[in-house]
């Protein structure tokens, strides 16, 4: 009987340590894509689903991002949690990001929408000159590349999507930011070259070969859970995020942020 208890305690300890590594020690996911619409490399950092995660080494996170030297930083929602009352920790992160680049864009996630202080948090972002794209599109010149950046609200419908897409110059490289991939996938018209999302957390718990067990809005064994997906005329990328919601549990799915480099097609 004692042997079984010792075995149980040993396995439990290993699982606790493994889970701590998964939720605390982030990795950098690096992706290289090609497009004929860029003339120079476009260097992007995507941060999503941070959920005010105080377990992460923030200084190391900033150092990693600074070393990347991104042209653009995209915050694709749920940067705070719906339960977050004191978001000063997250604002410290934002302050450090603004020292790296002035081109930071944010879209609402469902947790900011649910948080009673969501609007106030949004004002704090704007005060730091973070560009909040709430069903808006902007045209920017980045490293001599003409870029369309579109930001969708979490609850956008097809009518709202069509309105946001009005006036888009399809000759420019077009990036669409949407916290959740679920709604845009119903409306896409193929004008987007790259779609960046989060929300799924990659399922948090993943199984070999199978992938995510469950994802919000997609149910069990979701198709669009994590990583790159080739759509008809677009590429969808879903980042699994730097934080967790509901339970601080991850399996085969370490917290991360992503560095995406867009290179000219040769």
Automatic annotation (TrEMBL):
- Ranges that cross the membrane: 6-26
BP GO annotations:
lipid A biosynthetic process
Q: Which UniProt keywords apply?
A: Hydrolase, Membrane, Metal-binding, Transmembrane, Transmembrane helix
Name all Calcineurin-like phosphoesterase domain ranges: 43-202
Under Gene Ontology molecular function, one entry of this record is: metal ion binding
Q: What InterPro entries would the database entry show? A: Calcineurin-like_PHP (IPR004843), Metallo-depent_PP-like (IPR029052), Metallophosphoesterase_sf (IPR051158)
| Residues in the signal sequence | none
Keyword Transmembrane helix: yes or no? yes
Instruction: Name one cellular component (GO) term.
Output: membrane
Q: Supply the name of the protein.
A: Metallophosphoesterase
What is the protein's species of origin? Anaerosalibacter massiliensis
């Amino acid at each position: 009987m004692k042997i079984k208890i010792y075995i149980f305690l040993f396995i439990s300890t290993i699982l606790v340590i493994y889970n701590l590594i998964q939720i605390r020690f982030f990795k950098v996911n690096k992706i290289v894509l090609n497009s004929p619409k860029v003339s120079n490399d476009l260097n992007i950092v995507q941060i999503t689903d941070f959920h005010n995660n105080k377990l992460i080494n923030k200084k190391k996170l900033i150092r990693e991002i600074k070393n990347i030297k991104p042209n653009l930083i995209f915050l694709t929602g749920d940067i705070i949690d719906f339960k977050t009352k004191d978001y000063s920790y997250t604002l410290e992160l934002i302050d450090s990001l603004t020292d790296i680049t002035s081109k930071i864009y944010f879209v609402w996630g469902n947790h900011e929408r649910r948080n009673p202080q969501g609007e106030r948090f949004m004002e704090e972002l704007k005060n730091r000159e973070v560009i909040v794209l709430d069903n808006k599109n902007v045209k920017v010149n980045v490293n001599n590349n003409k870029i369309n950046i579109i930001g969708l609200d979490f609850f956008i419908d097809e009518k709202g999507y069509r309105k946001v897409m009005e006036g888009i110059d399809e000759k420019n490289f077009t990036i669409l930011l949407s916290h959740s991939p679920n709604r845009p996938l119903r409306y896409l018209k193929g004008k987007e070259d790259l779609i960046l999302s989060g929300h799924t957390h990659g399922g948090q718990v993943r199984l070999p070969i199978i992938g995510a067990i469950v994802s919000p809005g997609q149910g069990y064994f979701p198709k669009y859970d994590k990583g790159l997906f080739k759509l008809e005329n677009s590429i969808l990328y879903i980042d699994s995020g730097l934080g967790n919601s509901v339970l601080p549990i991850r399996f085969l799915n370490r917290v991360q942020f992503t560095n995406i480099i867009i290179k000219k097609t040769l």
